[in-house]
Amino acid sequence: LGGMGSLDSPLTSLTTGFNPLDVEEFRMQAHQTVDFICNYYKNVDSYPVLPRVEPGFLRRLLPESPPQHGEHFDSVLRELHTIVLPGMTHWTSPNFFAYFPATLSSVALSADLLSSALNPVAFNWLASPAVTELESLTMDWLAQLIDLPECFRFSGGSGGGVLQATTSEAMLCTLVAAREAVLARTGQDGAGRLVAYSSDQTHSTFAKACKIAGIPSCNVRILPTRREDDFGLSPETLRAAMKADAEAGLVPTYVCATVGTTSSTAVDPVGAVSEVAAGHGAWVHVDAAYAGSACLCPEFRHHLYGVDRVDSVSMSPHKWLLTGLDCCCLWVRDKARLTTSLSINPEYLKNRPSESGSVVDYKDWQVGVGRRFRALKLYMVLRCYGATNLQSHIRADVWLAQAFVRMVQSDPRFEVVVPRRFALVCFRLKPTLGDGEAGEAEAEALNRRLLETLNSTGRAYLTHTVLGSTYVIRFAAGASLTQLRHVEAAWGLIKEKTDEIMGSVDLVSAREI
């Protein structure tokens, strides 16, 4: 044993009895964990959606140092229930209407447990052939379900899909691919001339990805949108910006079009944007993180009209397709353009299948090398639920949003600010002082107060945005447990708090008179 000592050394006695993967112990802990999860879901409706805690609360309640000796699993679970849960924002609550939903399902939860148990590190085909091939098949399946053109599928030849963690990674990878393609044409000294374009409604992750990819901040064009265009990117505005940049000696490189923006689910005209970009040879990426899932339903697929002309598309099943975080699908028309820009091939990863060119090595489709078995949960969701049930899920959430629109429209104090497209409703209290500057300032103050009051109750959680110069409240239906009664209760709370706020405003006005 050399320097390890004899079998009866202190080292051996210290480790005797420690078995971190004892199957029977895991069986017991797994039962406890499942009971914890089921009880949580049964009671999550009663928890305040937003926690009533102050920054730093958790550090004051937990030990300053890790334990020298392990503690019992059940005592740690109890601590999770009594200390951690009260500080959680409950994204799974049926009263969660903020941001976009992070949907889950029993199948996805079970699949996540399975993938964690199998624990493959599938950086290339040889590292786990079934993991790679299941991902490729699943990406082709989902591409079929949302009716992506054949060119984005492995079955179609040059294209294919990969699972990333989030849209941020999908944007970054495609930005790098676009950058490398342009620099191959113009020379490496042209990096400072590359320009990327999006609308002012595009998710902020676009600017972050540009920064990481080395696009100078002065060359990131955030183009203005207008209410008249429902806050979609105007092809004419894009054409003028790209033309001006080209005439100035810059190189239009990348355009991000969005189908379902975060603020209002605005939809950029994909076909027209692609036509403009094609005139400059720029890469076009479509971010359909939220609304892409809706395209399982034929009635929403027109929002992707023109996608046959783009270079890449991404959507996040963890938002609306019951799959759980993290799971972002990225499809590319020409996989070689992506893998060439991200490929690494150290000696210790070389192998015959990879060198044959007949397999997919997903390490060359992403920023990192190691990767988890994300495909299993998406595959199992598609396989266990099927297209019909998933379409019904999407349509049910849209129906809830439509019901909420009718509730808002039934009260003359409120208005829906932009058309509802999917399951998000943007609404506000109308100005009471007219449509001028004073009225808008008053309306913003009232809506800010209303939102703060609503969220402070713990009975619902909504968020806001600003469209143009108008402050609006966002109501996003779609949490996995949300039913009509929760939407009705939220509307009842909104009216109740509005009555209180408007009553206090009237009282102040009367006193001033």
UniProtKB/TrEMBL annotation:
GO molecular function: carboxy-lyase activity; pyridoxal phosphate binding
Pfam families from the UniProt entry: Pyridoxal_deC
Transmembrane residue ranges: none
Any single Gene Ontology cellular-component annotation: cytoplasm
Cofactor(s) demanded: pyridoxal 5'-phosphate
Entry keywords, A to Z: Decarboxylase, Lyase, Pyridoxal phosphate
N6-(pyridoxal phosphate)lysine PTM sites in chain numbering: K319
One GO biological process term: carboxylic acid metabolic process
Family: Belongs to the group II decarboxylase family.
Protein name per the record: Tryptophan decarboxylase
Native source organism of the sequence: Colocasia esculenta
